[in-house]
Amino acid sequence: MSKTRIVGIDYGAKRVGLAIADPLGMFAQPFGTYSPGDAIRKMEELHESEGVRTIIIGWPLREDGSEGTATEAVDRFAQRLGNSLTGVEIIRWDERFTSEEARDQIRTGPDPSLRKKGRGRVDMAAAGIILEEYLKS
Predict the structure, then answer these.
(1) Domains along the chain?
(2) Does residue 75 surpass a pLDDT of 90?
Protein backbone atom coordinates (compact mmCIF):
# COMPACT_ATOMS: atom_id res chain seq x y z
CA MET A 1 0.00 0.00 0.00
CA SER A 2 1.36 3.42 -0.87
CA LYS A 3 1.14 6.01 1.88
CA THR A 4 -0.95 8.69 0.23
CA ARG A 5 -2.90 10.63 2.81
CA ILE A 6 -2.02 13.86 4.56
CA VAL A 7 -3.88 14.58 7.80
CA GLY A 8 -4.32 17.88 9.63
CA ILE A 9 -4.69 17.94 13.40
CA ASP A 10 -5.91 20.64 15.78
CA TYR A 11 -4.91 19.30 19.21
CA GLY A 12 -6.73 20.17 22.41
CA ALA A 13 -6.54 18.53 25.82
CA LYS A 14 -10.23 17.55 25.58
CA ARG A 15 -10.86 17.44 21.81
CA VAL A 16 -8.70 16.79 18.77
CA GLY A 17 -9.99 17.94 15.40
CA LEU A 18 -8.95 15.93 12.35
CA ALA A 19 -9.05 16.77 8.66
CA ILE A 20 -7.87 14.64 5.75
CA ALA A 21 -6.61 15.50 2.29
CA ASP A 22 -7.86 13.75 -0.80
CA PRO A 23 -5.43 11.13 -2.23
CA LEU A 24 -3.93 13.74 -4.59
CA GLY A 25 -3.24 16.14 -1.72
CA MET A 26 -5.24 18.98 -3.21
CA PHE A 27 -8.21 19.47 -0.86
CA ALA A 28 -8.84 19.16 2.87
CA GLN A 29 -12.08 17.91 4.34
CA PRO A 30 -13.15 17.62 7.98
CA PHE A 31 -12.76 14.10 9.35
CA GLY A 32 -14.03 14.29 12.92
CA THR A 33 -13.44 15.38 16.48
CA TYR A 34 -12.19 12.92 19.09
CA SER A 35 -10.73 12.73 22.56
CA PRO A 36 -6.90 12.59 22.42
CA GLY A 37 -6.84 8.81 22.99
CA ASP A 38 -9.58 8.18 20.45
CA ALA A 39 -7.79 10.45 17.96
CA ILE A 40 -4.67 8.28 18.14
CA ARG A 41 -6.77 5.14 17.66
CA LYS A 42 -8.58 6.77 14.71
CA MET A 43 -5.22 7.75 13.19
CA GLU A 44 -3.98 4.15 13.57
CA GLU A 45 -7.11 2.89 11.80
CA LEU A 46 -6.75 5.49 9.06
CA HIS A 47 -3.08 4.63 8.60
CA GLU A 48 -3.98 0.96 8.30
CA SER A 49 -6.88 1.45 5.86
CA GLU A 50 -5.83 4.45 3.75
CA GLY A 51 -2.16 5.01 4.40
CA VAL A 52 -0.86 8.22 5.97
CA ARG A 53 2.40 9.74 4.83
CA THR A 54 2.30 13.11 6.61
CA ILE A 55 0.59 14.67 9.62
CA ILE A 56 0.34 18.43 9.87
CA ILE A 57 -0.22 19.27 13.53
CA GLY A 58 -1.16 22.74 14.66
CA TRP A 59 1.67 24.34 16.60
CA PRO A 60 0.09 26.79 19.08
CA LEU A 61 2.62 29.58 19.21
CA ARG A 62 1.88 32.61 21.32
CA GLU A 63 0.89 35.81 19.56
CA ASP A 64 4.52 36.98 19.70
CA GLY A 65 5.71 33.74 18.07
CA SER A 66 7.18 32.16 21.20
CA GLU A 67 6.47 28.67 22.49
CA GLY A 68 4.82 27.88 25.81
CA THR A 69 2.93 25.25 27.75
CA ALA A 70 0.50 24.70 24.86
CA THR A 71 3.33 23.76 22.50
CA GLU A 72 4.69 21.38 25.15
CA ALA A 73 1.32 19.60 25.28
CA VAL A 74 1.15 19.35 21.48
CA ASP A 75 4.72 18.05 21.41
CA ARG A 76 3.81 15.25 23.85
CA PHE A 77 0.80 14.33 21.68
CA ALA A 78 2.93 14.42 18.52
CA GLN A 79 5.43 12.08 20.19
CA ARG A 80 2.61 9.65 21.03
CA LEU A 81 1.49 9.80 17.40
CA GLY A 82 5.03 9.21 16.17
CA ASN A 83 5.35 6.16 18.40
CA SER A 84 2.05 4.76 17.09
CA LEU A 85 2.52 5.57 13.40
CA THR A 86 6.02 4.61 12.37
CA GLY A 87 7.28 6.01 9.10
CA VAL A 88 4.88 8.97 9.13
CA GLU A 89 6.34 12.48 8.92
CA ILE A 90 4.94 14.90 11.52
CA ILE A 91 5.16 18.59 10.64
CA ARG A 92 4.44 21.29 13.21
CA TRP A 93 2.47 24.13 11.60
CA ASP A 94 1.85 27.60 13.04
CA GLU A 95 -1.82 27.58 13.98
CA ARG A 96 -2.19 31.10 15.33
CA PHE A 97 -5.67 32.49 14.68
CA THR A 98 -7.03 29.28 13.06
CA SER A 99 -9.70 28.80 15.73
CA GLU A 100 -10.96 32.35 15.19
CA GLU A 101 -10.97 31.78 11.42
CA ALA A 102 -12.82 28.48 11.92
CA ARG A 103 -15.48 30.21 14.05
CA ASP A 104 -15.93 32.84 11.31
CA GLN A 105 -16.25 30.16 8.62
CA ILE A 106 -18.83 28.25 10.64
CA ARG A 107 -20.82 31.39 11.44
CA THR A 108 -20.84 32.84 7.92
CA GLY A 109 -20.41 29.77 5.71
CA PRO A 110 -22.95 28.66 3.12
CA ASP A 111 -23.96 25.47 4.96
CA PRO A 112 -26.54 26.36 7.67
CA SER A 113 -26.04 23.02 9.44
CA LEU A 114 -22.47 24.07 10.30
CA ARG A 115 -23.71 27.17 12.10
CA LYS A 116 -24.94 25.11 15.05
CA LYS A 117 -23.08 25.64 18.30
CA GLY A 118 -20.47 23.13 19.26
CA ARG A 119 -16.80 23.33 20.09
CA GLY A 120 -16.09 20.10 18.22
CA ARG A 121 -17.06 21.75 14.95
CA VAL A 122 -14.51 24.51 15.58
CA ASP A 123 -11.74 21.98 16.29
CA MET A 124 -12.53 20.04 13.13
CA ALA A 125 -12.76 23.21 11.03
CA ALA A 126 -9.48 24.48 12.50
CA ALA A 127 -7.80 21.18 11.53
CA GLY A 128 -9.11 21.74 8.01
CA ILE A 129 -7.68 25.27 7.92
CA ILE A 130 -4.28 24.03 9.15
CA LEU A 131 -4.26 21.36 6.46
CA GLU A 132 -5.46 23.75 3.72
CA GLU A 133 -2.69 26.21 4.60
CA TYR A 134 -0.12 23.45 4.35
CA LEU A 135 -1.51 22.15 1.04
CA LYS A 136 -1.42 25.67 -0.44
CA SER A 137 2.16 26.33 0.69
Answers:
(1) 5-136 (3.30.420.140)
(2) yes
Global pTM value: 0.86
- Establish how many alpha carbons lie within 13 A of residue 58's alpha carbon, considering only the half-sphere containing its beta carbon: 28
The model's pLDDT over 81-100, given as tens digits with 9 standing for 90+, comes to 999 998 999 999 998 878 77
Reduced to 3 states (helix: H, G, I; strand: E, B; else coil), residue 4 is coil
Question: Which three-class secondary structure string do you get for 55-122?
Answer: EEEEECCCCCCCCCHHHHHHHHHHHHHHHHCCCCEEEEEECCCHHHHHHHHHHHCCCHHHHCCCHHHH
Alpha-carbon distance of 7 to 130, in angstroms, equals 10
- The residue type of 67 is E
